[in-house]
Every structure is written in C-alpha cells, then in structure tokens.
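Hello forum,

I keep getting stuck at the same step: I have a sequence, I want structure tokens, and every attempt I make locally crashes halfway through. Rather than fight my setup again tonight, could one of you with a working pipeline run this one for me? It's a single chain of 467 residues.
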Amino acid sequence: MDRRGDIIRFGVDGWKARFDEGFDDEGVARVADALGLVWADAAPGATIYVGFDTRHGARGFAHLVAGILSSYGLSVRVSDCPCPTPAVAWCCSRDEAAQGAVIVTASELSCEYGGILVRGADGGPLSRRFLDEVEQAISLAPSRELGAFEECDLVGPYLAELASHVDRAPIAARRPRVVVDAMCGAGTTHLAGLLTELGCDVVEMHVEPREDFGGIHPDPHDPWADACEQAVVAHGADMGLLLDGDGDRASVIDEKGNLLPARVLVPMLLGNLVMGHGAHGRVVTTLTCSACISREAERLGCETTAVPVGFNRIYRETLDSDVIMGVEEYGGVCVPVHLRERDGLLVCLLAVEMLARSGKSLTQMTAELEEKIGTMCYARRDLRLDPAATQAFRNVLPGLNPGTLVGKEPVEVSHADGLRAQFDDDSWVLIRPSRTSSVVRVYAEAPTASVRDDLITEACDLVRNGI
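Reply #2:
Ran it on my machine without issues. Output:
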C-alpha cells in the first residue's frame, strides 16, 4: 500500500500513497505499465474500465493509466466524469469482454492521498497472487507510450440498474426529505439526482468541487459526519445519507441526527431484503461483526457464515449463489445479486425504500428492532506497538487460550483470525494484530458498556503481558 524509495507495494486491493511521498505521474505510470503487461499477457485485446474520483489530479492520472493500458493493445473505456467505484465495477461486471477495472481513488483517506484500486472481471477484488504478479512486474523505467482510449458514460447505466432494485411507489408516495452528503467525493450529484428522480425531497451537502474535501476526511463516520447530522435536524429531514470518497461505503443518520451503527443498520437492511424483496440465503459477516446481525439473520431464517477480517474473504463466499448479503464490521455491504463488491449507493437506496415502506421514523424502527433482537454495545481499541513488540505478540498468539476473561468462561475460543473468545450471552472479544502495521486491534461486544469495556481492558492487558 505504500512506496518506499523506488519500491511500490500493493495492499489488499491496489496502491495508495501520499502525493508528497510518491503518488505522482511516475508512480502511476509504473503501476499502469505493470497492469498493462500482466493483463495483455493473460487476455490480449481485452476491455479494461477506468474510473476516477474527485481528488487532486484524478482525471489526469486516469487518462495516463488509460493511455498506457491501451498501448498494450487493450481496449480501454474511461469514465467521462468522476464516478463511484461501484459504478466502474458494475460496468466491468456486465461486459463479457472485460478483464478488469482500475479506479483512481484513495476512498475514505484524507486529501493528501492518492490511490489506484484494481478490480477483476466480475467487478470484485483480485487475488493476492495476481496483485503480487503485478507488483513484481513494476519497472523503474516503465513504457510511456500512450494509446487511444474511449471516454464514455459509466454512471448513467449503473444508476438505472440501481433504481431497478427498489420499489419506486412507496418512495414517491411518502416523498421523504433526505439530506445527502457525498463528502465532496465521487458520489456527488449522482446519488442526490437519483433520489430526486425517485421522488425524494433532497438537500445535498458538500456539492462544490473541493480537492481538500472542505477540511473533512471523506469517511462516513464521526467526527466527519457531524455536519450532516446537524443538517438533518436543521432541515427537519427524515434521514441523512453519507457516502465515503469513492462511494463503496455508506452511513445512515436518523431524524434526530444520530448515526445508525452497523449493528442497527445492517439488520434493518437485511430485513428489507428478506421481507420486502423475498431474498433468502446466507449472510456472510466478518468475525468482528456485531452479534445483532446474526441474531436478525436467525430470526429471518437465514444462515450466517463468519469469516476472518478482509473483504476478499467475504467475496470468496459470494461466489456461491446462496449468499444474499456480505457485511464488514463497519457497515460495508455487498449484495451479490447486484455486485460482488460493496456499494454504498445501493445501501442508501435500500435504506430510503425501507423507510418509505415502513411508514415510521428511523427512531421508531430502531426501537422495534431492538425489541425483537435486543441490543449490544460494540467498540474497538487499537494498541500501537513498535514492530518488534507486534511481531513478538504474533509469535505467542497461537498459544494463548485464556480460561476466563472478566470472570467469564468462554464457550468457544478460536484462533481463525487472531484470538476470539465467545461467551454464552453473545458477548465476545477478539484480539487481532494488523497485517499491515504495528497495531494490535482489540474488538469487544457485550450487552452492557461496562462489560464491553472490561473485556477490552483485560484483552489489552493480555497483549501487554504476552509481549
């Protein structure tokens, strides 16, 4: 995910770096050259889709990528405007001639960063093997030959397909007032325009082009969601919708200005898919997702599969046709019938449809959900250690098997993704060293905040004592 000197390293889905630390024409050309080499060797003449967000120089970088890919004999189609990552992925997934996609974006990172995300033929993530092959093909002296490419509308067809996933009638009948905050990112104007077309009364924020994102990070969580929360109350809106910088993740705000946590929003969306759309099948979550999701899945008659952290793990499960939803711990949602990738715009549309169908407020819907499945208190704490200490903990982690934590005896202890202890009241704690930095992440959930905090504190002590 970074570049040290002349070495470019890929993260789980591409390359991200600060503009003052290597994300420039030279670095972008090197990555594009390697992608062109690998893709052209695997599928000569295949189609590649290219999109870009609203960051500094993004359109120019996208055109540079497109020109280099084209020089390898690939057929390249480039968005004619800033566009959400899921729009590019969806267009790629619907084109039988497509081999993959490139999106110039750093998603929710601050304005100091640029990035290149890479997607496969079905719009989903690519394998580590593929990314390693591209990484190894990165040259210090890439080809700067540029070929011709086609600019086209990637957003229009995607938005039309999105609209087909919701019932227009209840939305048009209720005409909910919605505050839309795309956080100066790639979803700006696109989501608001679609909701207006569906019959919503829309107030849009952060519409003006701002390469500094108006001083916020395009991350749909507090504190960056504060302005939208305040706007919902000020405008008397029924709900607020936030998109991250490239539109693959979203958050929802209730009419009182409260950001709905994933443990509330995801079960609501699942209920809408099952009860409103007749969906039935498996729900795939990460091991760090709230127990509220699996409780609601069980109540609705759906099986839940929990996998280690990382969207690639969720994606692999979606290759089976029985998966109706994939969920990350902070609310990134994939609905495979639409796309095997996260799509924040679809989340927003489903949330609006669910509200319109209910005839209630989000506050009322939250209370009713908690009456059915209960409530849980969720938190994460990051322990920042030096590299040697982090590695030392990784070494001892497989041998840790605590008999009790905060006086509670686990009913199950798993080392599938760090150390996870599960208790009989659905509370749990997970200790997981980061794969990319010197951080140990500690997650916990319990029926009360005090038990949750005690679990986190004791787990942090376990880390420190284990080094």
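The longest strand covers residues 377-384. If your local run keeps crashing, start a new thread with the error log.
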